[in-house]
Amino acid sequence: MENQEDLIELTAEEEQELQELEQKGRGSKILKGVLTGLIVLLLSAGIFGLLRLYPFLSKFEGTWVDSQSGNYIVENHGNKSTFKIENIQESANLTLIFKGDLYASGSNRYKTKNNQVYLEVFKKGLPENVINEFEKNTEAYEIEKNTEEELLLKYKESAVKAAFRESNIDHLFYYELTGFGKGIKGKEVKMRNTGFASNTLTLSKEDSH
What is the pTM of this model? Predict the structure, then answer.
């Protein structure tokens, strides 16, 4: 008995229809592959854009130093931010310190709040009477730390107001990450304010190595 499959013969029209269906199947696979690749590309671009624009605190992590004098330093760890001005009154013994809570305020923009002001006094090389004057000035400062090498003084509200003409100085600290190039992390940060030596300070990320 002959195999039934051998008895099935397709007409020319049926063969042409079968070929058309096979071609459509291949075209559908190609189209599906193109669409899948396009979706992956769009998702990748979306993720890159999110990482590039969203103000993650980790993008502003670490130590940033101004490129000119080196006296302005920002140190960020998590949501804790410290801004230092070294060589106050051209003295290597004095550093003005601002400590606040870091938060995002826009696309790659950051501010700090609850800022407190400190004066760090390195005792080495200072006359004893000068150190005593700092320690006794209880109207302006509270002593936070006092060791053989260092004296850390916290400004009282009245002293902050006397120095900056207001007791709330949060508006002095406004940062913007720049210099992204083709990456997702900025290489520079611009600090915009009207309370320090320059209206805009440019700081660069310090190499951790």
Answer: 0.72
